[in-house]
Amino acid sequence: MASAAAAAILPITETAATRMTAGAAGKIVRWTKNSLARNKQAMIDPSNFSRVLAPPVLDLARDVSLRLQDQRSQVEKLQDYVTKSLEGGSLGSVSQENIDPNVGTPTAEKNKKVIATSSQPYWWNQLQKEEKTMMTSEERQKRRQALEKARQNLHNLNKLHENTQEIAETFWAHLETNKMENPVLDKREQKWLKATFRQIRDRHALTVEDLAEFAITTRPYWDPALPLDDTVMDFLRGRMGVQLLCEHALSPKGMIYKDCHLLSVLEDATNEAQLLCESHYSHLVTAAPEVVIVTQTIDRSDEFTIVQPWIHYVLVELLKNAMAVSMERMTKEMEASSCSNVLPPTIFIAIDDHHDEEDKSYLSIDVLDQGGGFKNPDLAQNTDILFDFVRTKKTMWDRLDDQQTYAETRSPMQGLGVGLCLSRLMMQHFGGTVELASHPPLSLRKKQSLIGDSSVVDSLEAGCIASIKLLKDLDHKEPLYASDDDE
């Protein structure tokens, strides 16, 4: 409400609107961890901590607006695809009297030559070329319903970005117009600042879920020749950048945690993952797998500059996966031995400091389970598919279904299928990544145990290793995913 009231009092002037139009054609800011930290530090007047300075706030507001504009363009690309898919292929003109009850396709179209054009969707060209790939009338109806729903959802998502961008631009325009001579925000403007970034953050809380629904329901009809996966990933990168900047503006200390004890972050993530695991597998009446943290080069007192909430999220996601396969292995051993006192295998977190071929300094955090590794050899050779957005999900989680079964939330160990995808994107924002691989039986005897019983570190059975790679160079050249930055 504060933002709406401020917007009514301080409308966008013609000069400010011209500036915004010119600025919208510019580049999205290349934020690094250091530049974000400096931005937060510059917001507060060192002579008076209650005074907030406008220039660094203006930089954030302008960049958030540009990122929202970029996200909106990604949504419009998806809208264009769905619209063409619905309008192409004469799908809307098929009537029931022309449907062959035996085949379920228009009898008049069976022998008709179709000239392939760029305006015809991929599925329709394939439908005409091969008899065996023809859709039944039920399949066509299902496809049309999915695309119609997707079109409406994307329309709503587009409007959300349009309205949210107006919120950011109104605040941005006010700062550019009124704060050049007196760059200190008064109390009303400080409230407006918080209301603006809070509204943007909260309005986009469910955009990942909305996009997941679009991908799950329409992916079977995607044209493989179109870069729809790339468009979805560009949208997600933009969304995460916006959320990070909003949280950075709202947090008293910002989102960049300097001199952070990594071990405390690992402990918190481990405790949360274990609680989720015990909640999900409560019927087995057993504790979650033990987690042992080992290292060879990192000391307990070592401090790092990280985006702590993101590191915590990624660790919880990777530990949840490791604990799930560990509990599955334990369940199989219990059934095979008819013994109820079998414990889940231990999970290890190995931390190391190393350099790559370009002499960049990295911190690696490896989560190693003993669940047996990938059963599918093709998947073991190409684990990148697991990082695709909701690639492995076939159905959308339904709140109504969960309410009817008296579940307060969806399963804590299962979700939309976005955890690994978002985890990799979070780490890539500042030059890192997340990788998955199988590991054979191996030994960690040379590692020093930081948490847990060092006597169990002798050897590990086969399993998977999920590796987090963090770039330690705070001013690396990788941008905070400015998708329009070609440099």
From TrEMBL:
Its EC number is 2.7.11.-. The keyword Plastid does not apply. Residues 89-112 are annotated as: Disordered. Keywords: ATP-binding, Coiled coil, Kinase, Mitochondrion, Nucleotide-binding, Pyruvate, Transferase. Residues 140-167 form a coiled coil. The keyword ATP-binding applies. InterPro entries: AK/P_DHK_N_sf, BCKD/PDK, HATPase_C_sf, HATPase_dom. Pfam families: HATPase_c (PF02518). It is found in: Mitochondrion matrix. One of its GO terms (biological process) is regulation of glucose metabolic process. GO terms for molecular function: ATP binding; pyruvate dehydrogenase (acetyl-transferring) kinase activity. Residues 308-440 form the Histidine kinase/HSP90-like ATPase domain. GO terms for cellular component: mitochondrial matrix. Belongs to the PDK/BCKDK protein kinase family. This is Protein-serine/threonine kinase. It comes from Seminavis robusta. The lineage of its organism: Eukaryota, Sar, Stramenopiles, Ochrophyta, Bacillariophyta.
